[in-house]
Amino acid sequence: MLGAELATRNLPTDSIVLALPRGGVPVGFEVARALRAPLDVVVVRKLGVPRQPELAMGAIASSGIRFLDEKLIRQEGISQAAVEAIATREMQEAERREQLYRGGRPALDLRNRTVILVDDGLATGSTMLAAVKCMMSLEPVSLIVAAPVGSQQACAHIRKWADECVCLAMPNPFVAVGEWYEDFGQTSDAEVRDLLAQAAC
């Protein structure tokens, strides 16, 4: 459905789809197929609150660019040392995954091209925001964020940074991304590699 929606927008023929692993890759694969565009990944890791890892206090991209929710960090009383320790750990994992997923293939050149950043959903938006900031430094001509579902708050925040945010459903109240999928099982590293290899053919 997301691919079909984006296909109606007459995007440039040299557009690139970048998916956020792991859950964003199956969605990105279908979007890339609908647009007949190349598919690559941008590896971004959530920085979880120490006592509540599912709650994002920010995110970090494999390039080292990070986004921090300073207000939440203050509210939770998280020390700078704790933030740095978590960021270091997640940075190492981001670098590991990028090497694993690409299998030696170089990253695509994004300069002066339309980039479509895809994830399976936008809950807080912090991971996607880190990806947007990372991509901006690579000088694309246009940056579009696309997801099947997201919270109104996350989409509004992302629209301040990206050129466009395409989100098919923005329920209010927003409960969880997984509620919008028949199968929300975890995507494996092997599945990510397989989909990227298929897209490269």
Outline the fold blueprint.
Layout: H1 2-7, E1 16-19, H2 24-35, E2 39-41, E3 44-49, E4 52-61, E5 66-68, H3 70-76, H4 80-102, E6 114-118, H5 126-136, E7 142-149, H6 152-159, E8 164-169, H7 189-200
Helix pairs in contact: 2-7, 4-7
Could you please describe the fold and organization of this structure?
The strands form two sheets. Strands 2-1-6-7-8 form a five-stranded parallel sheet, sandwiched between helices. A three-stranded antiparallel sheet has the order 3-4-5. The model has no long low-confidence stretch (mean pLDDT 91). The longest helix has 23 residues, at 80-102. A hairpin with a 2-residue loop joins strand 3 and strand 4. With 201 residues, the protein is an alpha/beta fold. The chain has helices at residues 2-7, 24-35, 70-76, 80-102, 126-136, 152-159, 189-200; strands at 16-19, 39-41, 44-49, 52-61, 66-68, 114-118, 142-149, 164-169. The chain contains seven helices and eight strands. The two termini are 23 Å apart. It folds into two domains: 2-42 and 109-200, 3-Layer(aba) Sandwich (Rossmann fold), CATH 3.40.50.2020; 46-100, no CATH class.
Distance between the termini: 23 Å
Integer-rounded radius of gyration: 16 Å
Number of E-state strands: 8
Order of neighbouring strands in the sheet with most strands = 2-1-6-7-8
The total number of structural domains is: 2
The number of helical segments is 7
Please give the share of residues in helix: 25-40%
Provide the CATH top-level class of the largest domain: Alpha Beta
What's the rounded overall pLDDT mean?
91
CATH topology-level fold name of the largest domain: Rossmann fold
Shape designation: globular
How would you sum up the major sheet?
5 strands, parallel
